[in-house]
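sorry for the late reply, my laptop died twice this morning and i had to redo everyting from scratch. anyway the thing you sent over, i finally got around to it. pasting the sequence first so we're on the same page, its 463 residues, then the predicted structure underneath. double check i copied it right bc i was rushing
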Amino acid sequence: MSPPTPGHRLSIRARLAVSYGLVMVAVLSVIAFAVGTVHERLGLARLDTDLAHAMRSAAGVVNSEITERHSLAAGALEGLIELELPGVGVSVLDDGGRLLATRFEGAPALNPERQRHIVAADTPLTLEPERLRVTASRWRHGSDAYTVVAWTALAPLDRDHATVMNTVRIAIPIAALAALAGGWLIVWRALRPLSQTAACADAINPGHLDARLPVPGPRDELRRLTVAFNGVLDRLSAEVGVQRRFMTDASHELRTPVSVARTAAQVTLAAPNRTEAEYREALGIVAGQTERLTRIVEDMFVLALADVEGRTLAPRYLYFDELVDDCVQAARVLAAERDITIALGAPEGVQMRGDDELLRRMVMNLLDNAVRYSPEGSAVSVVVGVTPTQITLTVDDAGPGIPHAKQERVFERFVRLETARPTSGGGLGLPIARWITEQHGGSLRVESLTSGSRFVATLAVGS
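ok and here's the structure:
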């Protein structure tokens, strides 16, 4: 088995708190990136607006001077002398790109060659490494065409952006720590009822399976988990109870034939001399009890496999009417000892798909039950019915009948109802028969007749 990873060594509370903190760091990092990007773009947009305003102001003054002096060069020079734009540099170039006038008050100087590059680009640009924002626009006054270039330093915007980003970088770890602490507290409060429930679950031991977890009041996930866990305990307790009763009843059933066989052997061996008839009688008793013991053990083995789904079906196509006829012929040998007749009514060619061995056991169990509880000289009726989807086997006996309130109890393990005639059955035949019918997509039920009982087994035809 591989060693646990570092994350698995942490408690759920710690993992949730750390996960919450990491998610907060990721969210804040995305927000910081978005804030930085938006702040930078808004700053550039504001500078572009200021530069456009500066170009319009410069063009307005130059146009006025051109009107007075009738010269583009003189108008550009005089106009820029009169213009005051703190922090903004302005130049005027003629249509050929020759620098006519320039002025920069509180702004860095800009090389004329670089200015001609801006004129060619005709879009706002950021110049590196000067860190200048530059833009240009073309103007015309009468027959004179010229270009106004405006620029400003990006240093103030860089300082503002750095201040914003440094503030965000400091805030992210603080917010992450606060999220970690808050997440730990929130998760602790949320998981505290779960911890209490786990403590109650730890206190439940195999000797006290009747204990249940306290169900919390709020209708939340914890309540659903608690109710589901109590449901598991209910099913487990019922199953353990069935197993305990099974073991108790099994030990009782096994003790009887073992005790009888041992007593017969001890009594026979106690005397120094026994006749052949006495030995035969004792061995007959031992053989009978051993046979009964073998039948009980085989039945217990079948039910044990049924409980763990260890007995899978081996289906094949078979004729159910022939299978029932074989079982009836075998049962008639036992029934003849008590002068009981078994009548069979079945159509020919009743074909189905099923497990031959299990189906024979089911039919023999029903016939054995009918013969055992029927009085001497009575009759047992066996009828097979068929429809396109299912087959019905009906077994009627002439026994004492079963009260309606106890009809389901006969299908419980080791249950034998009190009758006027004692029987040697182990109380496992009917539970096995019902399990076999259910494995074949059917059911087994009992009905009370005026005189006797009727067992009705239904089986799916299969495909």
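The radius of gyration is 50 Å.
thats about all i looked at so far, will dig more tmrw
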